[in-house]
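REQUEST ID: PR-0412
SUBMITTED BY: lab tech R.K.
PRIORITY: routine
TASK: structure prediction, single protein chain
INPUT:
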Amino acid sequence: MPAPRPPEFRRRAVELARQGEQPVAVIAKDLGISESCLRGWMAVDDVDTGRSRA
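STATUS: complete
OUTPUT:
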């Protein structure tokens, strides 16, 4: 199991993914995380910011 990432790392990764300049898969690979991990962080952020209800 990989080591947990700091909250700031997660926030920045989600910001990069939401900018839409590159596919989520490319951003995840560049950051050394899985695409599913990044998509999971995005889903949590959606709930935390009220974009989604889970």
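NOTES: Helices lie at 7-19, 24-31, 35-48.
REVIEWED BY: pending
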